[in-house]
Amino acid sequence: MIFENMGFYFREALLSFRRSTLMSMATILSITTILIIVGVFLLISINSSLFLKNIESQLEIIVYLEDNISQAEINNIKSNIASIDGIKEVKYVSKEEAYQRLLKDLGEQKDILSAIEKNPLPASLEIQVKDPKVIEQIANRIAEFKKVEEVEYGREIAEKLLNFTYVFRRAGMLVLALLVFASILIISNIIKITVYARRNEIEIMSLSGATSWFIKWPFIIEGFLQGFISSLFSIIILYNFYIFAVDKVQQAIPFLPLVVDNMDLLPIGISIVLLGSLVGILGSMFSVGKYLNV
């Protein structure tokens, strides 16, 4: 029965839009503004997450090898390390390559090495892990290998960085949850105001014998349309603003990692549409129910 009358409900919802155009536009504008605020925070959140992942990915284990190690032993150690669960990449750095890196880092001061007849730097392995949280366990395990002289991974820096990223992510999730909750309350109250302006119409229909759902459905559809249209407007504004902002930031700070792939931005757009539409539906449904004699 509900689906049979759905065409009528949609016509009533659209008619209501026409009858109260000013109120509808004010509602859409208000909801759009709130969704833009939520969207800005979501964009900041995903870029902050990318930045933290980028920093974490730079954490690596340096394994210094003994001088008397053979190529067969190097290959064996590399193979054993690569087989450890959680290892992303293992790169061998020869004594000569390490020396050339040092010369490059010293730049104009490289002449200070001219007095050194023999290359003092050891060969090493540079290891990247998939999850920075297990870097200490992996480093301790590698330190037990034969022909390994020393293992470094910047323990204090790694611990401080991981603690910081953990707190930052949890704080971001909390702020996001509070922002979404506040947005739901604000949007619901905005819809309540629009429903309140038509409370007499609702009461008359109720007294005339109309069922509660017959009265609710046009308002629910209207709330959905208001939320959906608002979400589309907010996505268009956010997308254009974000592309402009990313272009300016990349010109000023080209090395800063930013989310630019449309597929990575798609979940934000979907979240905004779902939030706007769902709050519009629920806000209308509960607001109308307040004035029904059921």
What does this structure look like?
With 294 residues, this protein is of the alpha+beta class. It folds into two domains: 6-55 and 161-289, no CATH class; 60-153, Alpha-Beta Plaits (2-Layer Sandwich). The chain has nine helices and four strands; from the N terminus they run H-H-E-H-E-H-E-H-E-H-H-H-H. The protein has a four-stranded antiparallel beta sheet. The model has no long low-confidence stretch (mean pLDDT 83).
Q: How would you concisely characterize the structure shown here?
A:
With about 290 residues, this protein is an alpha+beta fold.
The overall pLDDT, averaged over residues, is 83
User: Reading side by side through the largest sheet, how are the strands ordered?
Assistant: 2-3-1-4
**What percent strand?**
5-15%
Query: What's the oligomerization state?
Result: single chain
What is the β-strand count? 4
Number of separate helices: 9
Q: How many structural domains in the coordinates?
A: 2
SSE pattern, N- to C-terminal? HHEHEHEHEHHHH
What are the salient characteristics of this protein?
single chain, 294 residues, alpha+beta, Alpha-Beta Plaits, 2 domains, 4-stranded antiparallel sheet, 9 helices, elongated
Task: Provide the fold topology.
Layout: H1 6-19, H2 21-57, E1 60-65, H3 71-82, E2 87-93, H4 95-106, E3 124-129, H5 135-142, E4 148-152, H6 155-196, H7 199-207, H8 212-252, H9 262-289
Antiparallel strand pairs: 1-3, 1-4, 2-3
